[in-house]
Structure formats: structure tokens, C-alpha cells
């Protein structure tokens, strides 16, 4: 669906005569999550399925592995995988089209695919910076736009939830990454702006900012020789979050219980934030 096909006359009035939903549930919803073959994305998928989602699709460039297979075994027929490259708009659009063709609808998109690279700003190459921004920022924009076009075409009150980061609020002093933090700050700003633009289509746009999460990308954190001392200094919960602990924020924002919630960011950082 081209942008020109969405005319001002086609914009629905933002009114509701429906009884507000008070239960946080994803019953009957089709949810797509980019980068959900493992890590945070797969943890979000698991939480969505535990909260009644009819089906969850992972949109990922990598092949599903053992972690994905384990979740699929628990939810047979309810977890799907579609291959796409989020840095290519035509690829992510085709993935959304595939989901709609298979399931007849799409109700929520979690824009989660991302990459990280931690080193001093003067050590980043041009290729390093472009690789981060291509996935974290440009890919996020393409994904959100593909979802929004599908919601509008299907006349669905959809929800877009971005995965931002606590690094978008303040720097990681131990392992800085100016491009990563900047890309995630861009994601948060994008969520606010898209929420304003797409409210007229009954599309809600929000973000979640995880702190330190126990994934393959953060294996090094507890291995630091002064990790215990860092925890004492920063306070909060003395551990990393498990991926499933982020899921509640996403489930809420995807659910109809959040029907009047848009343009917000939910930090899930256990107080310690960035160490």
C-alpha cells in the first residue's frame, strides 16, 4: 500500500462507543515481533503467548534455533517464523503481508530487532556506525511503517511497541557506545512522533526501555571483577533481568487495556539502570 493511497478522506474519526477493556489480555490477537528467534524478542513472544495471543510471529534474518524450538514445543502451532531483513523496507513489508495472508490480520508489532557495539567513540569505523543505525533506527522506522500500513488497510486499531533502551536516557559508563545510545534515543523520539501522527488512524505507538538483561549480548556484565561492587553502588535489584521479566510491559502496551495509552516509554531497569 503506497503512502499516496492513504488519503485524508480515508482517515477514521477517533471515537469509541465500545466498553473499555479492563483485563490485560491478548486473547485472539496476532502479534509480530522482529528479532524474536532468541533473546529479548523470544522472551516477549513467550509472554504474549502466555497471555492469550492467538499466534505470535518472529520476523528475523537468522534461522530459528534450539531456544525457539523449545518455546514452540510449549505452544504448538502458535509460534511462527518469517524471514526478513528489517533494513530493507520491501523485505519487512513482504513479511507483514505474509502474516496477514496466513492469519487474516495483524494486531500488534513489536519493533525489537537490534544490534549493539560497545567501544570508545573514536574507535568506531564508518561501517560500525552505519551497521548500528541501519538496524536500530532505519530498520525500526521501516518496520513500524509496514505495520501501520497494514493496520490502516485492515481498519485495525493496532499497536506498535518499540524496544528502546536505558542507554537512550544516559550513557553506560563502563562500556560506552555513543552510536548505540543515539540510535535508541532516536527510537524513543520516533515513538513519540509516530504516536502523534498515527493517532488519527487509531494506532497507538509506545516503547519499552530495558536496562541490563540476561542475554547472549550481556554475558560479559556479571564477569566484570567489580560487578558486585557496582551493584552495591547503584542499588536496585542486584542482578540482571531475565528476558521474560520485560514481557509484562509489552503485553500491556499491546493489549486493549492500553487503549488510551500512547506516546509513552516504560523503563524496565530494576533501578540499577546502566552501570
From TrEMBL:
Pfam entry (one): adh_short_C2
Keyword Oxidoreductase applies: yes
UniProt-recorded name of the protein: NAD(P)-binding protein
Transmembrane segments: none
Family affiliation: Belongs to the short-chain dehydrogenases/reductases (SDR) family.
Top-rank taxon: Eukaryota
Keyword NADP: yes
Organism: Aulographum hederae CBS 113979
Keyword set, alphabetical order: NADP, Oxidoreductase
GO molecular function: oxidoreductase activity, acting on NAD(P)H, oxygen as acceptor; oxidoreductase activity, acting on the CH-OH group of donors, NAD or NADP as acceptor
Amino acid at each position: 500500500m503506497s503512502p499516496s493511497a492513504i488519503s485524508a478522506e480515508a482517515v477514521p474519526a477517533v471515537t469509541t462507543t465500545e466498553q473499555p477493556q479492563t483485563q490485560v489480555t491478548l486473547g485472539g490477537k496476532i502479534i509480530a515481533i522482529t528479532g524474536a528467534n532468541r533473546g529479548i524478542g523470544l522472551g516477549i513472544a513467550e509472554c504474549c503467548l502466555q497471555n492469550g495471543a492467538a499466534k505470535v510471529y518472529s520476523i528475523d534474518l537468522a534461522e530459528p534455533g534450539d531456544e525457539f524450538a523449545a518455546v514452540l514445543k510449549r505452544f504448538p502451532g502458535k509460534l511462527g517464523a518469517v524471514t526478513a531483513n528489517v533494513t530493507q523496507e520491501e523485505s519487512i513489508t513482504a513479511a507483514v503481508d505474509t502474516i496477514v495472508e496466513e492469519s487474516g490480520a495483524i494486531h500488534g508489532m513489536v519493533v525489537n530487532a537490534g544490534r549493539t557495539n560497545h567501544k570508545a567513540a573514536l574507535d568506531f569505523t564508518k561501517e560500525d556506525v552505519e551497521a548500528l543505525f541501519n538496524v536500530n533506527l532505519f530498520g525500526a522506522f521501516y518496520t513500524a511503517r509496514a505495520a501501520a500500513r497494514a493496520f490502516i488497510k485492515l481498519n485495525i486499531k493496532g499497536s506498535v511497541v518499540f524496544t528502546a533502551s536505558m542507554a537512550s536516557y544516559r550513557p553506560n559508563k563502563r562500556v560506552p557506545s555513543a552510536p548505540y545510545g543515539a540510535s535508541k534515543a532516536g527510537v524513543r523520539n520516533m515513538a513519540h512522533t509516530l504516536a502523534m501522527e498515527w493517532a488519527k488512524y487509531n494506532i497507538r505507538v509506545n516503547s519499552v526501555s530495558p536496562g541490563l538483561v540476561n542475554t547472549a549480548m550481556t554475558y560479559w556484565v556479571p564477569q566484570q571483577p567489580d560487578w558486585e561492587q557496582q551493584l552495591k553502588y547503584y542499588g536496585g535489584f542486584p542482578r540482571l533481568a531475565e528476558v521474560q521479566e520485560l514481557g509484562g510491559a509489552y503485553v500491556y502496551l499491546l493489549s486493549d487495556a492500553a487503549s488510551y495509552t500512547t506516546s509513552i516509554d516504560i523503563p524496565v531497569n530494576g533501578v540499577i539502570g546502566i552501570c
